[in-house]
Amino acid sequence: MKDVKVCVLRIEGTNCEDEAAQAFASVGATPEKVHLKQLLGQCPSDLKRDLGSYDILMLPGGFSAGDYVRAGAIFAARMKSGLKKDIVRFVEDGKPVLGVCNGFQILVELGLLPALDGTMSEAPEAALYTNDSGRFECRPTLLRQERKGRGVFTSGIPRGSVVMYPSAHAEGKLMFPRSEEGKMLDRLLENDQVMFRYVDPEGDYAGYPWCPNGSLHNIAGICNPAGNVLGMMPHPERVLKRETHPDWTRAKWKEDGDGLSLFRSAVGSIR
Amino acid sequence: MSLDHLLFKRDVPFHLVEIGLAAATDDELRELSKEMGLSLSLDEMKRIRDHFIALERRPTDVELESIAQAWSEHCCYKSSKVILREHIFGIDNGKVLSRGDAGVMEFDDEYGYALRIESHNHPSAIEPYGGAATGIGGIVRDVLCMGAQPVALIDPLFFGPVDFKGELPAGSKTPKYLVSGVVAGIRDYGNRIGIPTVCGGLYFDGSYLGNCLVNVGCVGIVKRKDLRDNAVGGVGDHLILCGGRTGRDGIHGVTFASAELSSKSEDESRGAVQLGDPITKEPLIHACLEVNSLGLINGMKDLGGGGLSCVVGEMALSGGCGAEVDLDKVPLKESGLAPWEVWVSESQERMMLAASEENVERILDLFAMWDVDATVIGKVVPGKCVTLKWQGVQVFQVDLGFLTAGPEYCRPCKIEVRSKTIREVKPKLPDMKTVVLDLLADPNIASKEWVFRMYDHEVRGGTVVKPASGVLNRGGPSDATVIKPLPDRERGLALAIGVNPWFCGLDAYRGGMASIDEACRNIIAVGGYPDSFTDCLNFGNPEKPERLGELKQAVAGMGDLARFLNLPVPSGNVSLYNETSRGSVLPTPTVLGLGIVEDVRKCVTTDLKKEGNLLYLVGETAEELGGSAVYRQYGGQGGEVPGVSPEGLKRSMDDMHAVMKKGLVASCHDVSDGGLAIAVAEMCLGGDIGASIETEQDKWFMFSESNTRWVVEIEPSKEREFLEGMGVPVVILGKVGGRSLEIGTGDGKASVPLKDMRDAWSGALPKLMG
After folding, report:
1. Which of B349, B369, B472, B608 to mutate to test the interface with A (most CBs of A within 10 A)?
2. Which pLDDT does position B258 carry in this prediction?
């Protein structure tokens, strides 16, 4: 079986890299935590790395550079200035790119999502805005997988199935420029880019707290038109095993957590 | 009083002053201590004077400031050490791996876990956001400098009543402002550094008006081979200062913490509060752990109270060496700092590494990759002396023996047991339904969801039992939180707080015991077994005999019980002088208990699981209502404070642990604030299902807060095996089912709808905080 190499990219303030790496390791891939400066060559020579040598790029959650400007903006700017060509090639080669939480925010800032018209838009087309509650929200969220087509992330998560990935963010409300909101949402749907939407235990598109941020159309995660770049606010890497689900003591025991199938899909697509 | 004639400015191109202690009168010594912000007593000033007379020279300001830091209550525990040594220090069951800046205990054959809790009370009372944030920063460094990866944060907080309408102590801030600021500080710092805030508590009492208590705990995990001493390796080691730059923030933090708060604290001591920067801390954690796991360093210590002045001396002394430091190499935030300011500044996010020369370059490279400053500022030398130079001029030379031989006091103490002197007044209670709803809405009992949903309690992906247990988005309170610190192992750690200031106020000895009992019950309730404790002792002014008596009694109670259980307290912290013009805070010995969970997949939570299951009460209930929530709610006075039978606790823990391991318990909740009725109510809330419970006793049975008790839910098919397993008293209470809590007692009954309970319990805190 092919050794699947995963670049778990980080800078200061990235803080979900351990569990992100663990997620890929637990489905048989070989993750490596890589500092952005290792890809940019700003480090001792034995630590230099080449993005092209990896099969999957993972942008974990956290507060990259403190999120003091706009969530993900600084990380995205640093990536864009030094790595733009490498990233575009990585995406156009069809390799999976996953951004979770702050990683999603970075993908939007980079223009890799929603990327309605290609690989990477010049300027961000959307924003992940402050939650309607005005607060950081750390709580369980239920998501329904809604992509019609198949893609690198969906093979293990059938359309219509509901998964529990917890959320933990202060800025997760997906928004488009107000004047174009309807039009852009339509295109997103036409392109089959909406992968995860927040639902309640009955499966309905519900408001707070099931949709923790007030996101447009209850959207929790979107992919690019090609389906190989996925960004989402909730954290699949926090539920690799059943015992980290919030209500696991109430249900019949099974080993796997809901998050595992997402990583299994991505790694499986390479093999 | 002018002191100018005692100050001799040295002829150098920077600020350096010698102080003519030899010629100073007693009044002048007192005034010097005050003017320079040293918080030293006259006797201490005289000891320093005599030391320098013997050396036949005057101390510099750098030296005098440094000694004041080292001899502060905060650094040398001068009022409490005698008491702690008698009751706490000696407990050792052979599983303590280290008693450094954090304690370290065995986790399994390969790993240890680090634990510590400390206070950041005075800074938080002045500047709640920054005070709380830097409290987290400091405790994380204590764990980090053992070589451990921090894996959990714990924050018990104590404030005045949010709805307090009376007059606040002069200069103090409203409880609402303090709660908001402290919670935001913990949120923004903890969430950014990516360490889950998993457990804590929110306590309200009038005694905390003007002097809130912010206790911050941290737990870490360390491979035993990576465990580091907070010491230099030996002569020739380089001292590498890394992390944040040094500035004027946090000067005199420890001496400020060692005095009562007053109306002037804000103006005089605002500069004593440090500024936190989590986005320097986050990569600092990575870089320190990386150079440690690569075997590049010999020792590591964090810069906390007293700054460089404490860290250099303590690291060198622990390694049996001296040190020479070029103080002007320290990277600064701003120019123009005097040498003494650089030496004692408590600027945040700094760590000191000791490394052999051949490893220095690689260390500096790795820190550069993380964009974290790292600078060699000195080296380790033979002898027992620390020497400092500034622009080539020697500004400091002090013998470490003298510097670290801070005074120890056996101050007078007076022991009062108020529960014995106050006549008990039982309050008149409204109907029982109202009592249950009032207690559920008591901010000390009500849901803390408003707080813990703002803390990322799941980052690192290892939180197994979370702050809320039960139906999604409708959970009840958990007893202990459980984390799985290593992703590939099912062994876990249970973390629980035990503290009851109201018990301690009436009977500090019993209150101290109760804090240990509560931490143990909570750990047992999730399926863990208690393993160690760390404590944060928050008390008033130790120079007042009654206050010191409270400290002594509480510590004796904790120590006696911990010793009986043979569970060590490998780390801790003492915070004294928690007083304002209104008086002292309630004696508040906060215990953080750590338990081992052999297999986290066997954990039990508090939420009721299934209609028809049986409810049992484990443990004995006495009419012990002193300090109880129901007395506080309705104006009761005095009363017997719940006692603890050490033998009873041990037997109960063992029986309970055995039946839990066998999987006989569907849910379990310890009985604490509000008593039995509230424990069952909380279980109903988590399971979103009702229950009916009954007793022939009178209503007080439902609200007594006797220690060492749990409510357990048992499937009928497992009842027999459960009963056979329990040697300690158990009594049937009733059944799970329905949409309300039905309570029957010998003198009345109540039916409390689930919906009303949820409104009362969930609504209270958001309503108060707006």
Report:
1. B472
2. 65
Q: Catalytic residue positions of B?
A: 74, 120
When divided into structural domains, chain A yields a total of 1
pLDDT digits (tens, 9 = 90+) for B696-742: 999 999 999 999 999 999 999 999 999 999 999 999 999 999 999 99
Question: Strands B197-204, B149-159: parallel, antiparallel or unpaired by DSSP?
Answer: parallel
**The whole model's pTM is what?**
0.96
**Six-digit token pair at B23?**
């010629």
How far apart CA B37 and CA B265 sit, in angstroms, is 12
pLDDT for the residue numbered B271:
65
The alpha carbon dihedral of B83, B531, B537, B441 has a sign of: negative
Name the token pair of B158: 């104590």
Q: Which candidate from B192, B462, B472 shows the least CB-CB separation from A247?
A: B472
Q: Contact at 8 Å (CB) between B587 and B158?
A: no
Choosing from A101, A137, A169, A223, which is the catalytic residue?
A101
pLDDT for B405: 85
DSSP calls for B53-65:
HHHTSPPBHHHHH
- Give me the residues of chain B with pLDDT under 50, please: none
Q: Which domain holds residue A20?
A: 5-270
> How far does Cα B492 stand from its chain's mean position?
21
Q: What is the CATH number of the domain that holds A260?
A: 3.40.50.880
List of chain A residues whose C-beta atoms are within 8 Å of the C-beta of residue B607:
249-250
Tokens of B654: 């063992």
Which pLDDT score is estimated for B501? 98
Burial string for A234-250 (b: 16+ CB within 10 Å, else e) reads bbbbbbbbbbbbbbbbb
Kindly state the greatest CA–CA separation across chain A.
Answer: 54
